[in-house]
Amino acid sequence: MVGTYSVEGISGRPPYLDEKLGAWLERFKRSPLLVFWETTKACPLACRHCRAMAIPNPLPGELTTEEGFRLIEEVASFGDPKPLLVLTGGDPLQRRDLFDLIEKANELSVPVAVSPAVSPHLTREVMRRLKASGVKMMSVSLDGAGPETHDYMRMVNGSFESTVKAIREALEEGLRVQVNTVVWRRNVLELPRIARLLRRLGVTVWEVFFLVVTGRAVAELDIRPWEYEVVMRFLLEVSRRGLQVRTVEAPFFRRVKLGSWVRPVGEGEALLDRLQAELNELLGPPVQEADSAFIPTRDGNGVIFVAYNGDVYPSGFLPVRLGNVKTQSIVGIYREHPLLLAMREGRFKGRCGLCEYRLVCGGSRARAFSFTGDPLESDPSCVYDPLDERPVRP
User: Fold this and answer.
1) Are 348 and 363 in contact (CB under 8 A)?
2) Where are the domains of the chain?
3) pTM for this entry
C-alpha cells in the first residue's frame, strides 16, 4: 500500500504522506523524474568542488552520438510522463553533437535541460540556439555573492562577472534559468546577498547544493551538521520572499518544510539570527507563506545518473556503479537493481532507518556512502533524532 512501511519495529502510514506524495513514490518505482547524463568530462574550468573531476579534453570511451541516441531512446521508453533529461558534464557545450542530441530528444518528446559551464563557449548565440531548440531549462552555477568567493571556488578570475552576465543574457533570451549554489564554509554568511542578487536578476529557481566529499570536493570545504539545520531554516525564510528553493543532497529540507526542525542554540542561534536579520534588511518582510511543496527525489529515487562512458549510478554524487547503458537497459537497471530497490523502500540503517521522514527524506545516500562506505547508512549531516521524545517545532 502506498505510504506504508515496516522497518526495524516502526510501522504505519506517516500523517504527512498524502495522496500526492504517495503518487510520486509510486511513480518513482517505475520511472525517474530526472535522468542526468554526464555527456563529457571535458570542461574549461577546474572547480575546487567538481564532482566530475572535469579535465580540459574528453576521455576515451565517451558515448558516441549513436550511443547517445540509443540512450535517449531508452529514456523515452520509461513511458509517459517522460523523465527530464539533464545534459551535464564537464561542459556539454564541449560536445560537437550537442544540438543533434537535443533534436533527437525532441523527436521522442523527451524534455531536455542543459547545465553548461560559464566559459567563452557560452555565448549569446548559443543561448539563442538553446532556446530555439526547445530546451526547458538552463542551469548556471553561482557560488558566492561576489568575485572573491565565487572566483576562488571556480579558480578562474572574472568568473563571477561572466556568470552574472550569462544569467542576465539567458533570461533576456527567454530561457528559464536555474541558479545552482554550493553551500560551503566561505559562503554561508553570503547566502542572504546571493538571494538578493538572484531576485535582482529575475531568477525564480534557486537550487542549493550541499557538499558531498567526492570528486575534487574535500571535507575541509564543508559546513558542520548544525549549520546544515540553520541553513535549512534560513532557506525556508527565503522561500517566503518569492524564490523557489530546492536542495540537492540535503533532503531533510523536506522535514523542515513539514514543520519539524531542531532549534539551534548558542552559536547556531546566533548564526540563524544573523542570516535572517540580513535577509530582512536586503529583501524586506515576507511576501508569501513559506513554500511547503516538494517532490521526494533523492539518490536513486526519482533520480538516475549516466556517466560519460555509459556507467550508471544512483546519482552523480554516489559512485556505486550499477551497470552500463552500452550493454544494459537503463530502464531495467533503474527498476530492478537491488540497491535502488532498497533505497526506494527506505531500508536504511541507524537513525535514517528509524526516522518517520525516511520515505520523503531518507537522507543523502551519497553523503552516507562518502562517510561510511555504505549507501544505506545514516546521513551524518542530519541532526534530527527520531527517537527524541521532545520534537522541536518552529
Assistant:
1) yes
2) 5-283
3) 0.93
Q: Nearest CA to 208 among 227, 189, 181?
A: 181
Average pLDDT, the chain: 91
Say if residue 392's pLDDT is above 50: no
Residue 270 is placed in which grid cell?
A: 546566533
pLDDT of residue 45: 78
**CA-based nearest residue to 94, from 134, 69, 121:** 121
3-class secondary structure, 263: coil
Neighbour-count burial of 266, counting CB atoms closer than 10 A to its CB (0-12 exposed, 13-18 middle, 19+ buried): exposed
User: Hey, what long-range contacts does 100-105 have (CB within 8 A, 24 or more apart)?
Assistant: 100/65, 101/39, 101/65, 101/68, 101/69, 101/72, 102/130, 102/133, 102/134, 102/135, 103/133, 104/68, 104/69, 104/72, 105/72, 105/75
- Taking a C-beta distance cutoff of 8 angstroms, is the pair 177, 216 a contact? no
**Mean pLDDT value across residues 38-45:** 91
For the domain made up of 5-283, the CATH class stated in words is alpha beta
Which pLDDT tens digit goes with each residue over 53-110? 667 788 999 999 999 999 999 999 999 999 999 999 999 999 999 999 999 999 999 9
Backbone angles phi, psi at 321, to 5 degrees: -70, 135
Residues 276, 189: Cα–Cα separation, whole Å: 11
